[in-house]
UniProtKB/TrEMBL annotation:
Signal peptide: none annotated. GO terms for molecular function: metal ion binding. Binds 1 Ca(2+) ion per subunit. Binds 2 manganese ions per subunit. Gene3D superfamilies: 1.20.1260.10. It holds the Pfam family Mn_catalase. Mn(2+) binds at E100, H133. It comes from Burkholderia pseudomallei (strain K96243). Its cofactor is Ca(2+); Mn(2+). It comes from the Bacteria. This is Mn-containing catalase. Transmembrane segments: none annotated. Keywords: Calcium, Manganese, Metal-binding.
Length: 247
């Protein structure tokens, strides 16, 4: 299935051992922006294409031996929650582009915490590969026309180009391309709610559901005029007796 060459893609030269740095490097092995998460990201995105109309009965196991643990720099185990795939090519490609950008930043920070020239050199190579991967994913994304908005359904036309100014910090609002420009129109005092309704949620209930809800209302109703003695009152000596604290 795979051709495996045991030689490294880049020659790693470590001048001296550094357990602390080794622990930090685990971030790029078992962390959310690490190589494993990225590999599983892309594998998961391609799984349906590779598997075709097959079923999901296959079981894959990772057997841990004496290798590096699948944890991040804080010893948190790797989790499939790091896998970011939605099954829509343009959305997955944008996710991959962002993942490569985040991974590059992590490599930059790892380079900044070591003065070992060999490690800095190897990390610089890995950091640069993230840049190359990002270029590749961007080319793939923009080879799809159109690629925005993601998915098949169009945006609701009357809301698609509106930027609602929902906060008021005083002073004039600075207009810019991201809130009022060619693609967006700034709405200074938007109606709330935007659809012109009363903003209240309504749910249609059948007869049985209405009966159940009414029974629940009676069971859980409270008396706002009551002022019962509580455990807090009793523990402090009673509702009318403040507790004395030693000075």
């Amino acid at each position: 299935m795979f051709f495996h060459n045991k030689r490294l893609q880049y020659t790693a030269r470590v001048a001296e051992t550094n357990p602390g740095l080794a622990n930090l490097l685990l971030e790029q092995f078992g962390g959310p922006q690490g190589e494993l998460a990225e590999a599983v990201d892309e594998q998961a995105q391609l799984y349906r294409k590779l598997n075709g109309g097959g079923n999901d009965s296959h079981v894959t196991q990772l057997l841990y031996g004496a290798g590096a643990p699948l944890v991040n720099s804080g010893a948190v185990p790797w989790t499939a929650a790091y896998v970011d795939t939605i099954g829509e090519p343009t959305a997955d490609l944008r996710s991959n582009i962002a993942a490569e950008a985040r991974a590059k930043i992590i490599y930059e920070r790892l380079i900044n915490v070591t003065d070992d020239p060999g490690i800095r050199d190897a990390l610089g190579f890995l950091m640069t590969r993230e840049v190359s991967h990002q270029k590749s994913f961007e080319k793939a994304l923009y080879s799809i026309t159109p690629n925005f908005p993601p998915g098949k359904l169009p945006a609701v036309p009357e809301y698609a180009d509106l930027y609602y100014a929902m906060s008021d910090g005083g002073g004039a609002r600075r207009k810019s391309p991201w809130n009022d420009g060619h693609d967006l129109r700034l709405v200074e005092h938007p109606p709330v709610p935007a659809d012109g309704g009363d903003g209240k949620a309504t749910i249609a209930l059948d007869g049985d559901e209405s009966t159940t809800l009414e029974a629940m209302r009676h069971r859980l109703k409270s008396d706002p005029s009551s002022d019962p003695t509580t455990g807090a009152d009793l523990g402090s000596g009673g509702p009318d007796k403040p507790r004395d604290f030693p000075t």
